[in-house]
C-alpha cells in the first residue's frame, strides 16, 4: 500500500518488465494508493488459486497493458485511473473480474476480454479507440492466441463508453452484447 497515487511511484526499469507481478495461491492481496508507469504491464496478475486480488485507487499510466489478469483468478479493480496504456485492462481465460468505477482513457482498448472469463463492468468511464473488446472478431489488439477467443460472459451497467473507432467490438447488435 502506497501513501497515495500522487506520492508513491513505481516506474519499471525497462519497458519489457512489469511494475508489479502478483502470484498468490491463497489469502488476499490489496494494491492501493500507487502510481505505476513505463512497463510492459502496470500490474500482472497470474493464477491465484483461492487468492483474491483487489486493485484500488491506483494510477496506471504509460504501460503496454495497465492490468493484465490470467488464469483461474478472482480480481476486483475499483476506482483506478488508467491513461495512455495501449490496453487498459486485459482479462484472459478463466478470470472472474469486477471492474467498477474506473476511468480509462487514451489507449487502443479500454477493456479487453478473452477466453472463458466472466466480468462485471459497471460505473466506468472509458475513452479509447475501442472501449470494450471481445477477442475473436478478427482484429487482435492485445496479443491473444486463437485459443483465447472469447466465450465467457460480460455484465455491465451505467458505463460511459466513448470509442474513437467504436464503443464495442464486435459492434452492438452482435449476439455477444445484450440490448441496453
Descriptive notes:
The mean pLDDT is 84. This protein has no helices and 18 strands. By secondary structure, it is mainly beta. It has strands at 9-11, 18-22, 28-32, 35-37, 41-45, 52-56, 59-61, 65-69, 74-78, 81-83, 87-91, 96-100, 103-105, 109-113, 118-122, 125-134, 153-157, 160-169. Strands 1, 2, 4, 5, 7, 8, 10, 11, 13, 14, 16 and 18 form a twelve-stranded parallel beta sheet that branches. 39% of the residues are buried.
Task: Write a compact overview of the structure shown.
This protein has 180 residues and is mainly β. It has strands at 9-11, 18-22, 28-32, 35-37, 41-45, 52-56, 59-61, 65-69, 74-78, 81-83, 87-91, 96-100, 103-105, 109-113, 118-122, 125-134, 153-157, 160-169.
Note the main attributes of this structure.
twelve-stranded parallel sheet, mainly beta, 180 residues, 18 strands, six-stranded parallel sheet
Which helices and strands occur, and which strands form pairs?
Layout: E1 9-11, E2 18-22, E3 28-32, E4 35-37, E5 41-45, E6 52-56, E7 59-61, E8 65-69, E9 74-78, E10 81-83, E11 87-91, E12 96-100, E13 103-105, E14 109-113, E15 118-122, E16 125-134, E17 153-157, E18 160-169
Parallel strand pairs: 1-4, 2-5, 3-6, 4-7, 5-8, 6-9, 7-10, 8-11, 9-12, 10-13, 11-14, 12-15, 13-16, 14-16, 15-17, 16-18
Amino acid at each position: 500500500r502506497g501513501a497515495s497515487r500522487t506520492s508513491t511511484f513505481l516506474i519499471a526499469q525497462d519497458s519489457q518488465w512489469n511494475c508489479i507481478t502478483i502470484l498468490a495461491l491463497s489469502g488476499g492481496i490489496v494494491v492501493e494508493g500507487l502510481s505505476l508507469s513505463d512497463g510492459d504491464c502496470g500490474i500482472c496478475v497470474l493464477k491465484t488459486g483461492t487468492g483474491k486480488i483487489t486493485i484500488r485507487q491506483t494510477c496506471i499510466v504509460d504501460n503496454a497493458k495497465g492490468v493484465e489478469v490470467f488464469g483461474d483468478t478472482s480480481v476486483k479493480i475499483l476506482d483506478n485511473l488508467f491513461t495512455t496504456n495501449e490496453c487498459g485492462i486485459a482479462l484472459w481465460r478463466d478470470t472472474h473480474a469486477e471492474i467498477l468505477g474506473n476511468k480509462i482513457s487514451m489507449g487502443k482498448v479500454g477493456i479487453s476480454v478473452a477466453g472463458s472469463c466472466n466480468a462485471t463492468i459497471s460505473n466506468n468511464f472509458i475513452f479509447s479507440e475501442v472501449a470494450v473488446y471481445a477477442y475473436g472478431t478478427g482484429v487482435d489488439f492485445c496479443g491473444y492466441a486463437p485459443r483465447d477467443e472469447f466465450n465467457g460472459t460480460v455484465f455491465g451497467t451505467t458505463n460511459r463508453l466513448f470509442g474513437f473507432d467504436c464503443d464495442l467490438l464486435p459492434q452492438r447488435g452482435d449476439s455477444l452484447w445484450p440490448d441496453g
